[in-house]
Design goal:
By secondary structure, the chain is α/β, with parallel strands linked by helices. The protein has helices spanning 2-17, 61-65, 72-85, 103-118, 136-146, 177-195, 222-234, and strands at 49-53, 89-92, 123-125, 156-160, 163-167, 202-206, 238-243, 249-254, 257-262, 291-298, 302-310, 318-326. Helix 3 (72-85) packs parallel to helix 4 and helix 6 packs parallel to helix 7.
Amino acid sequence: MFKKVAWLFIFICLLHLNPTSFAGREGSALFPPDSILVENIPFDSKPGTIAILGDLQRTSIWETLLGREQNDEERELILKSINLDSPSALVLLGDMVYEASNINQWKYFDRLLYPINKVNIPILPVLGNHEYYGESRIVAEEINKRFPQFTRSSWYSRTYGSTALIFLDSNVDELDNIEWQQQKFWFNRVINKYESDNNIKNILVFSHHPPYSNSLLTGDEIEVQEAFLDPFFKSKKTSAFFSGHAHTYERFLEKGKTFIISGGGGGPRVLLNVEKGCRKDQCTLPSPRPFNYLLVNETETGIIITVKALDKGKQDFYTLEVINLSKPI
């Protein structure tokens, strides 16, 4: 029995290290690299509440055999709660399904998001590592028919009131070097564009992989730090950097900027490093932390972020914390 579990663990590790090697995927690029030409498209001129949610994927059968939790009930409660909040937009921080070439998993995703789509709430996702799992042709078809912004690029930007939203593709292992460099160039350019735009007061950045994390499974993403944090820190208008991937909730302050991981959408939760030398987390709850999503509102003085939380096996949501980010300029 021990040998079977050991081999199963090795198989899952290999799958995560090179998820497409078992699917016969060809090439490293999933989407065409013409993002530099993508214009910013305002999707709503009236500011309202933006909901943010990460790591929706179901736990695979292989993970459940290793004892990882399956959170179907909590996941459905989260989407129902978000729908009751009536946001003007929903940002998904990646890992929407476990394997992006599995059509049945996308059907589950569609049922889950039906209340949101029914009332035409715009969905603005970033791509997680699970969105690259499987046969590339099927992956592209399933993603592009749900999110047409990805037919041109896997990174893009939008404006919302006086707030700019920048969505990155942090999957450095899935983009070739030219694409990664193009995205870095684009990010610098779009940051500078919003810096010089007097109508933009705040800039929010979204990626799947977090620059900083105390997760025992993932930790800091050095490539994300090196590619995007220098212009993020230099900008006077950047307020917060949001990520998922870590299946938890964390909040860090670095050089006066806020970094939030909201990966509590239903994926199996993880434990956090609390040993000496770990990053100082503004949230002091023990792990695994509650399921969570964020509500972001633009105000006259800046940005207010409300963290909604749900405990395992419970029905009622509560406010974990409220973060007030004053206007950068």
